[in-house]
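Retro notes, structure queue

What went well: the backlog is down to a handful. What didn't: a couple of records were mislabeled last round, so from now on we paste the full input next to the output in the thread. Example, using NAD-dependent epimerase/dehydratase domain-containing protein from Aulographum hederae CBS 113979:
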Amino acid sequence: MHVILTGATGLVGAGALGQLLAQPAVIQMDDFTTYSPEVLEQLKGAEACIWAQGISVTQVSKEREAETSLLSLPTTYPSLRPYSVRPGGVDHKGDGFTTQALEHRTQTAMMKMIPYILPPMRLLYSQGLSPTKDLGKFLVDLAVGDGKEVEGPNVEKGRIVNNKAFRRMVGL
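Corresponding output:
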């Protein structure tokens, strides 16, 4: 399996990285503005890409613009089969890999609030959460899958999977 993952230091990306590390080789990049010939050679032949560089919930309108651009890529590049996954509150409880990965990350104000926000959410609104282990596996499976449109409730245009659809599809 040859997958490109961006955003591996965040909650969602770390969940996907935990799944991908079971694979034989991982290339780490920190700079997405410069691609050396060596890196370009390593990226050749990738069968999938998981773009997990999320944005703050305060910038959701910008995320929707990015999503629209992403989903229009096949008009220019017909071989691409993009999906957009809209997770709920991302929860790393029980995911030792992601928890450990986040220990080395600079804590934003929102990240510092997570230990206080998630316990009541787990109790009162667990269906609004997206566990990182399940989300990471779902993203990898979707990325390396057949590229066909996804069907079912809470899926838009066959390519936008919201949290309810994600949870249904992984059996939560």
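Agreed that this is the format going forward. Reviewer comment attached to the example: The CA atoms of residues 90 and 130 lie 5 Å apart.
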